[in-house]
């Protein structure tokens, strides 16, 4: 009995000795609160290290799964290539059998039939009508069209064919019709089934090259995406390469274009345009671009007589009538303007025609609205007429202007 009382007393004494003081009670409560949820979120987080055998097992399992996925993808790719090769062999054997069984008297159709049936001749006729002169250019376009027509005739008979390199380079001064020819070529390719849409997307350096790292590739790819199924016409393409700056972003755009020209030539035609001397320099820096272009077309400058004929075509399209006495005056203006800097062939003619139309409008307004001629009533002929006096204003501006201001006449 005495022993039990003694033990109880010792236990009570020990508990009192180790009991926390009032100052430590708050810390003890915080410790208990922080650890009261032993199954909470923090206790479920992985707190192991790389030396843990279980972590190594999980990581090894993941790597084995990844390796198995890569192996399965490689097998599927190999099977796909094998099936494609088998299909190509079967198609080739079918073509050989077709050629062997086909009688020698089987007609392939006439060239004219294909030219008119596919609408190619219609596009060539429009090119002849809309473009004055440029005989070498038109001849080159007809040669390309002839190649496409004969290639389609060969396919009809079962001959082996391959899509020819249709990438182009148009060189010449401004206003010589490069964009117009590119549009016509896109339409011809669409008629012949060599492009899905036949549209033309015009791009410059600003459309292709970015201003900072990582900006060029998205811009170039976006323009290529817009042009897919048609023609991408890069005007003044030599500005893409800056030989004086090794860090210029244009090189990245050129590399993307080169890759697309090689891998996507069945669905995209790239046409480069610019001055001949600068394009030659550009090709010397980028020989890979030169080798990927199979059609080089040079656009010569127009003569004065051809520019007068272009003015007549423009007037006809806008439903104006140029007086016969006005043609010599306009030719004199063109000859004087050709001697000045910044002459732009058909673009200069278009600007001159716009000014002549404005002069005609001023003259007609003064006659009928201000002076009240014929009671203020004008005829259809008055509204359509462009006279010699309308062109004489342009010629006088050049003859009477100072040397520094003549280019603005």
Automatic annotation (TrEMBL):
It comes from the Eukaryota. The keyword Coiled coil applies. Residues 1-17 form the signal peptide. Transmembrane segments: none annotated. Residues 326-391 form the CbbX AAA lid domain. The keyword tRNA-binding does not apply. GO terms for molecular function: ATP binding; ATP hydrolysis activity. Residues 57-91 form a coiled coil. Residues 168-299 form the ATPase AAA-type core domain. Keywords: ATP-binding, Coiled coil, Nucleotide-binding, Signal. Pfam families: AAA (PF00004), AAA_lid_6 (PF17866). Belongs to the CbxX/CfxQ family. This is AAA+ ATPase domain-containing protein. It comes from Cylindrotheca closterium.
């Amino acid at each position: 009995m005495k022993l039990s009382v003694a033990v109880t007393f010792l236990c009570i004494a020990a508990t009192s000795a180790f009991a926390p003081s009032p100052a430590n009670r708050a810390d003890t409560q915080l410790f208990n609160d922080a650890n009261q949820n032993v199954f909470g979120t923090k206790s479920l987080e992985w707190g192991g290290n790389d030396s843990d055998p279980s972590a190594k097992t999980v990581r090894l399992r993941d790597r084995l799964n990844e390796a198995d996925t890569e192996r399965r993808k490689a097998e599927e790719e190999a099977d796909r290539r094998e099936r494609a090769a088998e299909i190509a062999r079967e198609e080739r054997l079918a073509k050989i059998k077709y050629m062997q069984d086909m009688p020698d008297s089987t007609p392939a159709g006439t060239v004219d039939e294909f030219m008119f049936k596919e609408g190619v001749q219609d596009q060539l006729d429009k090119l002849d009508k809309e473009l004055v002169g440029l005989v070498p250019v038109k001849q080159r376009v007809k040669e390309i069209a002839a190649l496409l027509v004969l290639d389609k005739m060969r396919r009809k008979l079962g001959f082996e064919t391959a899509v020819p390199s249709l990438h182009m380079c148009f060189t010449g001064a401004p206003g010589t019709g490069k964009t117009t020819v590119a549009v016509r070529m896109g339409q011809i390719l669409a008629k012949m089934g060599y492009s899905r849409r036949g549209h033309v997307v015009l791009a410059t350096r600003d459309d292709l090259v970015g201003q900072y790292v990582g900006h060029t590739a998205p811009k170039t790819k976006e323009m290529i995406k817009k042009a897919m199924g048609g023609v991408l016409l890069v005007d003044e393409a030599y500005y893409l390469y800056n030989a004086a700056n090794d860090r210029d972003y244009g090189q990245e755009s050129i590399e993307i274009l080169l890759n697309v020209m090689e891998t996507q030539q069945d669905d995209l035609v790239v046409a480069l345009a610019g001055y001949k001397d600068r394009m030659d320099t550009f090709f010397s820096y980028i020989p890979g671009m030169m080798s990927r272009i199979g059609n080089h077309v040079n656009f010569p400058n127009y003569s004065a007589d051809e520019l007068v004929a272009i003015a007549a075509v423009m007037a006809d399209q806008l439903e104006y009538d140029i007086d016969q006495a006005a043609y010599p005056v306009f030719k004199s203006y063109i000859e004087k303007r050709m001697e000045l800097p910044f002459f732009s062939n058909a673009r200069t003619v278009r600007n001159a025609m716009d000014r002549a139309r404005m002069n005609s409008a001023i003259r007609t307004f003064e006659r009928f609205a201000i002076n009240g001629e014929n009671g203020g009533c004008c005829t259809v002929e008055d509204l359509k007429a462009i006279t010699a006096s309308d062109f004489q204003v342009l010629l006088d501006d050049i003859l009477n202007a100072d040397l520094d201001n003549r280019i603005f006449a």
